[in-house]
Every structure is written in C-alpha cells, then in structure tokens.
Amino acid sequence: MRKLLLLILLNVFATNAYSFVDTKCSEDYKFVVDYIENNSPAFSDNVNNKTRPKYEKLKADLEEKVKTVSSENDCAKYLVYYIEFFNDNHTYLRIPANAKIDESDEKQVAKFLESELFKNRETYDLKESQLQNYPLNDVRGIYETADASYKVAVIKSKDQFRDLIGVIIDSKSKLWKEGQVKFELKKKKENLYEGFFYSRNHSLLYKTVVPFNDGIFGDNWFKSKIKNKVNHSLNRDRKTKFEVKDDVAYLRIPTFSGRAFQELDKLYKESGTEIHKTPYLIIDVRNNGGGSDTNVLPLIDFFYTKPMVFEETLEVWVSDKNKELYKVAFEDTMKEPEKVSPQTVAYYKELMKILDKAKPNTFASLGGDSRTVKGKSHKYPQKVAILYNRGCASSCETLLFLAQKAEKAILVGENSGGYVGYGNIFSVKTPQHKFTIQASTTRYKNARKYEVVGVSPDYRLDYKNDWIEQTKKILRLKAK
Prior knowledge:
eight-stranded antiparallel β-barrel; 24% strand
C-alpha cells in the first residue's frame, strides 16, 4: 500500500527528565509483524526478492527502536511506520485519542501541562532566519489555520523518517506552547507528503496524503500572506443538494452509505427530470467516503451512451487466522437468522468451502467478474463532470471507474483516495496497548494499481479559485 514512511524517530526523550521506557511496545510490535506476515494479502504483493532487503532492514531497525520508546504515542508511530510499508489503505492502525481537555477548567489545564504527554512533546528552538515568508510555491514558511487558532513555521528537519516539521509560533490554545512540534512530514513526491499531526489535546493522527498547493498545506494550513483562507478542494457539507443555474445542473452527494439509500433514491428520481433537460451536469462527490455501490449505479443514466465492460478478479488470502475470522463472522451473522438473506448465507457457505479446500498461505479466487454495465441513453446532459478530491474513496471511486468508460463524462479535481485494491476488513487488537489494527483479507487484482495512488482526473483544478466555477468553465469549453 502506501509508500513507506521510513524509519528512525529522533530520540528527543533520551535526556528528558520525565521520560521512561515503554516496555509493552516490543510485544505489540512483534504481534503486528507476525499478524501482517501471515495474514495480510498485501504482504506478498510488497515483499519480494527486490524489496526484501529494505523490508528486513526496516524490521530490524524498528525492532530496536520499539525497545526505547517513552510513550504510547511513540509506540503507535513505529507500528504505523511498519504497516505503511504495505501500501494497503484498508490496513491501518487506529491510534487511540487522548482524553478531551476543557480549557475553561483551570485544574484540567494545569494537570495536562504537568503530564508526561505535554512535557515529552518535541520542541524546537526556531532561529530568526527560519521565521520568514517564502514564496507561495515554496513549502517552507509561516502558516496559519483558517480560524487563526495556530500559527506555525514549516521548516526542513530532515532525517531518515521526516523532511519537514511544523513548529508552533503562536497558539490560542492553552495546551500548546511556542516551540512545540505540531506536525512532522515526509515527502512522497513533488508537492505530496505523508506524516503525523498532533491535535489540540496532543492526540496523534497519521495522514497518508498531505498535498501542498498554492500556499495551502493539507486541508487547513494556509500561508499567512493568503488573505482568503479557503481550501476550495474541500466540500464538507453533509447534506444532499440539487439545483439548476442557467445551463448547468448541480448534484451534491456527500455519501453513498447504505443507510442513505432512501434519501438518495428520492434525490435521483426527483432531480432526473430537470437533469435530462439541462445541457451540463456537475456531480459533486468531494469528501464522499463511499458506502454501497447500489447507491452509485443509478447515476449511470446521467452519462450513459453505450455498454461499459469491466473485468475484475477477487482473491482471498488463505491463512488459519483469516479462516477463523470468517467463521466467527458467519456465526455472529447467524445469531438472528430471520434477519439474514439467503444470498448472505450462500455467500458465507461458499466462501468457507473455498477457504477449506485452498492450500494454506496462498491466494484463493473468489471468482472472476466480467460485467457489462448498461443504462439508458438521453440527449441531455450533453457533458457530465464528476467533481472529486482525495476524500472520494471506496464506492465513490466506483463512480470514477464508471465515468472513465463513458464518453459523456469527464473527471475533474485531484487524485482520489485510492481505497480500491484491498478489502473485507477485520479488526484485531494488540496484546499490550490494545491498539486496534484494521486488516484486509482480500485483494482486487486489477484495481490494485490505484491503491493509495488514486484515480487521476482528466482536468486538475487549482486551489486558488472556486472548484465549481472552474468545473463550469471546463464543461462549456469541452462542448465547443
């Protein structure tokens, strides 16, 4: 899966009077390594003769490092570094959140400021030369959040695991002080980073993709010189919306969740008449994390012209643990048999039969699928834009695959999330810290090439201007 975030954490705690050694981390690390090596479909995809030396070195280095960690956060980091080697967006570590702090409660704040968590936060002594405003296309510089809660200096801090850090210059929160490191990132490729962010209460958050564009870093960090601090790539509105303005219909779909079936079915039916009278259509699925393909397929009629052929093969990794997980899942499903469809029962029985017959430590095919998807062709709309960002994932990316095959449709925005190569997730817990590992058991042979990378747009938008207005211009230009 995701490109490797390498290696060694700076041992900033070694000389700290409040540091201690977390002896539990080694056991958790060994558990994760054993689990991934034996049960992950992404392991064999990413560890081969060519990559084996890099993998073994990573393992050895991390094995030494986990013996010296001084906090649960640091332990979580090392486990993430290991898991991220495998480029599987569906396999990840759930990093536990810290307790919420009421900043209006002076006792709570004082207690937090005396905690190991706060005192062990890495600090950096900024030099005057590092407090300057670089050009918008230079990642270094002074940044603020949109609400001005934090101001940081992004500077180079290169070692084997990171290239940049964001250091607090000013904070409205009582829980952060000048000089503390707010985030640390490693460059993946041009204008694309990955790494760790620390929230208001210093909880740790890993982000696979942190883009830098036009002076905007990630979702919510803006260079101070930017007056209008708006990230046009985002659409966090969780409400559906339909409207027609002039020659463009606009359809906002924030989720394809199965729970939204009735709402979306009603939306598609009520908007269809007007959409089929209008020359252009924008389907806005920014920050749509997916859900059910059932809610995606009705959109085909808005851009259908001819049958679309898709081929895919689904495979499951055969291991004793995976067989056990599926068996338990089936037993749990059948606790209320009256609520279970015959199709679900048949699916589990066939799957268990395949797993029982298959050779251990191999992939077993769950069937090849060559599908011809059909819809109904209409004169209008003449051109349809699928507007999306990196928040478009899983079933949302199914819509992108459909649109790729359609002559009427164009993809507009930025690369999608890349949650399409692996699936059928189960949860396991580490023995000591009880970290939850979400782990894949299956892979899609053809879709794997999009995992982490995502689906590229036909037209990449800039971050300075409104994305809907940019999309309208592209639609009209395409029609000429």
